[in-house]
Amino acid sequence: MKAFSACLICAVLLFTALVPAAAASVQTAGTPAEKVQQVKSAIVIEEETGKVLYQMNADKELPPASMTKIMTLLLIFKALSRHQISLNEKVTVSEHAASMGGSQVFLEPGETMTVDEMLKAIAIASGNDASVAMAEYISGSEKAFVQKMNQEAKSLGLTHTTFQNPTGLPVRDHYTSAHDMAIMARELARYDQVFHYTSKYEDYLRQNTDKKFWLVNTNKLIKTYPGADGLKTGFTNEAQYCLTATAKRNGMRVIAVIMGAPSPKERNKEIAGLMDEAFANYTTKQILGKNIAVASAKVNKGDHGQVPIVTGNSAVLLLKKGESANGLQKKVDISRPLQAPIKAGTVVGYYTISKHNQVISKTPLIVKENIKRASWWQLFKRSAGSILVH
Q1: Radius of gyration of the chain from Cα atoms?
Q2: Which residue in 106, 126, 237, 372 is deepest, having the highest Cβ count within 10 Å?
Q3: 33-283 domain in CATH 3.40.710.10?
Q4: For residues 168 and 234, is the Cβ–Cβ distance under 8 A?
Q5: Strand stretches in 178-322, DSSP E
Q6: How confident is the model at residue 63, as a pLDDT?
């Protein structure tokens, strides 16, 4: 009886020891939990596929500090890509923008700088004043720009994000998560031009004047981590030390987010370790490039009866080192019928790659150009031509 009781006690002790370990492992994926010990949340994703390589408390809602500017930069680059603004346009600084505290480039009320210079100030030096100046320039007011930030977050499917300003200065109900931050960073990374700014360790504003201002990148990994090319740091007393980092090696870009580290040294150490783990264990293989035609489709009542369907981005496989890319099944699925009018960039299907009957890659297929509704005369000629053929 004593032997049975002893065994029972041992079993209970063993069970209680294992349960916390099992609970902790649920929080992580791909890397042992002890890899990240001193931070509140973390995530690592591969940029092209968006696959999560590691996560810990990734949905925890936390203040992002100046990592907020990733969304600010995203809206700026969207406006540039749509030709709503251009890099050489002059932006006049308001009193409100110039009054921003925290990290700044000391813009003065009434001073003008180009969009290009403002981007340097935001991406390199984390200028709060430059962020607000650009917000006002794009949307007319900071408040209207913040509405756009939240609309964009919603369109990206971010459920743990709410913004109150474009800077990250402390304010109530301004929060995001490591997961949501990684998705924003991935969206921003689609604009390759952003890395022209975020990969610079230093630059200058007001060159050739007596007010020349030296910009030094707040992301020291740019100088110390091989392949690092972005993206944005953050710090407030509440948020502690945060970083969304990007690095590219052998064609694979990794995005890593750390939130709530106790020191910049710990933050950089943890994030470098996570990216090292990703590069050591994974590689990517491109199957198709971006804007490659894979099919054509009929468009009902379109000014073009037939349109090419192209890849919206590269079709890429994420593979573990040593994993074979043989035995792939590739398939083009297009929504039919297509109906005019259709805007350029509209997703009309997917290019899927499967292995062992499991989908391992899914690339959106788009219409590359605007398709207008056909005039009655075009439809008449098309109909008449069809009758003559028959």
Answers
A1: 25
A2: 126
A3: yes
A4: yes
A5: 202-205, 213-216, 228-236, 240-249, 252-261, 282-288, 293-300, 306-311, 315-320
A6: 98
The reply to whether 232 sits in an annotated binding site is yes
Burial class (CB in 10 A: 0-12, 13-18, 19+), 102: middle
Q: What is the pLDDT of residue 373?
A: 84
The conformational region for residue 97 under phi > 0 = left, psi -120 to 50 = alpha, else beta, is alpha
Question: Can 33-283 and 289-385 be said to share one CATH topology?
Answer: no
Instruction: For residues 53 and 29, give the distance between their C-alpha atoms in angstroms, rounded to a whole number.
Output: 7
- Supply the pLDDT for residue 141: 98
Distance separating alpha carbons of residues 134 and 165, to the nearest angstrom? 12
Chain centre distance of CA 250: 20
End-to-end Cα separation, the chain, in angstroms: 95
Sign for the CA dihedral angle at 57, 58, 60, 63 comes to positive
The pLDDT of residue 27 is: 36
**Active-site residue numbers?**
66, 69, 126
Q: Nearest to residue 165, comparing CAs of 247, 248, 101?
A: 101
Q: Taking a C-beta distance cutoff of 8 angstroms, is the pair 271, 246 a contact?
A: no
How many whole angstroms separate alpha carbon 26 and alpha carbon 269?
23
Would you say the C-alpha torsion 248, 241, 161, 33 has a positive or negative sign? positive
* Spatial CA neighbour of 323 closest among 361, 283, 274, 379: 283
Question: In the prediction, which pLDDT does 301 show?
Answer: 76
- Cβ–Cβ under 8 Å, residues 341 and 373: yes
Q: What is the mean pLDDT of each run of 10 residues along the chain (390 residues)?
A: 40 37 34 65 96 97 98 98 97 97 95 98 97 98 98 98 98 98 97 97 92 94 97 97 97 97 96 97 94 90 83 93 90 87 91 91 92 69 54
CA distance 275 to 280: 8
Query: What is the torsional sign of CA 264, 162, 99, 206?
Result: positive
CATH entry, 289-385, from 2.30.40.10, 2.60.410.10, 3.40.50.720, 3.30.930.10: 2.60.410.10
In the chain, domain spans: 33-283, 289-385
